[in-house]
Input
Amino acid sequence: MLIANPIYDNVFKYLMEDLEIAKGVISTIINTEIDHLTFQAQESITRIDNKFSFYHLDFVARIRQQDRSYKTVLIEMQKTNLPNDIIRFRRYLGQKYRDEDEVILDNGKVKTGPLPIINIYLLGFYLSRTLPAVIKVDRRYIDVIHGVEITERNEFIECLSHDSYVIQIPALQMELKNRLEYVLSIFMQENFISKENHLKDYRYETEDTLMKKILHKLQKAAGDREFLRQMEVEEMAYREYEILRTTIETSEKRLQEKETEIKEKETEIKGKETEIKEKETEIKEKETEIKEKDKVLREKEMKLQEKDRQLLERERYIKELQERLNIEPA
Output
């Protein structure tokens, strides 16, 4: 069966805009019964460099909990092929915590207020090759004092923390033993019919109603020329973004190398300046030592001169005595 590759944003969005499919896919991933699912009242779009957009597929879901009670949650579903998208995710998640959520009630009225959040991230790259393909980040309430888990739930805590599901698409190696593996098998990057990776041959047989709907939708997209054109545009945008990112990273690396080189030169200059100062200090110490030696020499010269003077005085005195002795009568 020929299907469009849902790793492309426009195909993924087209698939998940079908609420029946979205309900089945999300319910399968979070392994929770969804009683009712709607799109959030407002659609969110993130633009990168004003060149192309990312659609955040946000849903409001009424889910059935283990105790059979219902809880309304906000489910944020994103797919990205950009490894450096963490900042975008953080900013968007921060915005969701700031905003009041809008819930359309059964009577058609809109209710605003914070909802617990569940995040589903479909990543077209490896976070780590040692991590499994599908990861659930699950919150637990722990009584820290007594070291036991708490089963009670509280709205304050629920709205200020969230569960996450992270799916590494390149790590998907499905054995098709359950519905989750079948659902995720559509993302496996294999059996492409051309080097563009836009279309692929889905070779697995399934009798699952949800899978039949998904495959029918993707098969329809595969035969739509507009979808193929959008996939080409998206791929070109990704390539352009990658070139830009690589250029920026290369420039930043060169800048860092230059900064490191400048710092090394500055360190070298400081070292030379320190060496010069030490030499100057050494010279000053030598000059002081020489001055002290000159002073000692001068003092010695003065002492010698004084001794010479004293000797001359003695010689003169002796001579005068001799002269006196010679003049005296016998």
The two ends are 159 Å apart (CA to CA). Residues 2-223 form one domain. Residues 42-48 have pLDDT under 50 and may be disordered. DSSP finds seven helices and 13 strands in the chain.
